[in-house]
Design goal:
33% of the residues lie in helices and 15% in strands. The chain has five helices and five strands. Strands 1, 2, 3, 4 and 5 form a five-stranded antiparallel sheet that branches. Bound molecules: flavin mononucleotide. Flavin mononucleotide binds next to strand 3.
């Protein structure tokens, strides 16, 4: 799969909107992710309101690039689920699926960490007026990349241990 090796973090975007069908494809990819016991502890907020995007971009000192995106997807995690100890891991699989799908669609994104920081979670909760039964996992600004950048080859044979 090309996107596994081609995907990069995209933090600068062209000033144009993303088609709704492409956003739905990204969301479908997220919801196709595996989860512990198939618990699917996720929901997704799709934000295009410029004022709310600005507030999200200020949610952490490392989320400023979100301000330049035409849309920000915010995966949130349900607190009540079958196996909550696995829920953040489940969310990370969903985000990786979305990241790869965005790349395959010619779009770019990045995961901006919200969990596990309580102050960042609170900032996103306020910006989105989230209900108490979910918390924000991360921010995914999505848009057409302003520049194309090659990915590194990270294969390192020294990190592989064959047991024969
Ligand atoms: C769990 C996680 C949290 C991240 N948080 C941030 C973040 O807060 N801000 C940011 O600019 N990039 C963030 N990133 C992106 C990483 O910096 C990036 O994936 C890494 O430098 C490798 O670059 P690449 O994605 O282009 O391969 C995060 C990535 C992951 C997987």
């Amino acid at each position: 799969m090309d996107s596994i090796f081609k995907r990069v973090s995209v933090r600068n975007f062209e000033p144009r909107q993303v088609e709704a069908e492409k956003i739905e494809k990204i969301l479908r990819a997220g919801m196709a992710a595996p989860s512990a016991g198939n618990q699917q502890p996720w929901e997704f907020y799709v934000v295009t309101n410029p004022q709310v995007i600005k507030e999200l971009a200020e949610a952490s000192q490392y989320s400023g690039c979100a301000a330049k995106a035409p849309v920000v997807i915010v995966p949130v995690c349900k607190k009540e689920c079958w196996m909550p100890e696995y829920a953040d891991i489940d969310l990370s699989y969903a985000c990786e699926n979305m990241w790869l799908e965005a790349d395959a669609l010619g779009l770019g994104t990045v995961v901006l960490a919200i969990t596990p920081f309580d102050d960042r979670k609170e900032n996103v909760k306020k910006a989105l007026n989230l209900p108490d039964d979910v918390y924000a996992y991360g921010l995914m600004p999505v848009g057409y990349p302003a520049a194309v950048r090659p990915q590194q080859d990270r294969y390192d044979p020294a990190r592989v241990h064959y047991v024969i």
